[in-house]
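User: Hey, quick favor. My workstation is busy. Could you predict this chain's structure for me?
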Amino acid sequence: MKVILQRVLSSSVEVNHKIVGKIDQGLTLLIGFHKNDDTTKLDKMIQKIIHLRIFDDSNHVMNQSVLDISGQVLSVSQFTLYADTKRGNRPSYSNAMEKDKAIQLYNEFNRKLGEYLEVQTGIFGSNMKLKIENDGPVTIVLEE
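Assistant: No problem, here it is.
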């Protein structure tokens, strides 16, 4: 499982010219699943995400979590995180989880994350347009 986490001031995802998910201050997560992933990785990743201290405290030190600031999450599936570009110019996605399994893990991830924070999502498998106002910028790659 791989997550690109961005600290944001705001973020939204659009499908077919309609906004389907939108947040204010919080995290935008781009989430990809490896073909060998299973549910055992979800809880550890969620705990890392919600407790990661990357928001400024009153002294402008990154010392607060998304929980501490009562932030929101925009979660977007992105199988291209497992692109293999070692050979040639056309990426291979053979390491990405197949769609039917990935959607189950993605939905379970969002359900569990939603026990802690407000979670907005894109639409799995759709062509999505993201607007991200990255704060910092702060972008972190998490891999489980």
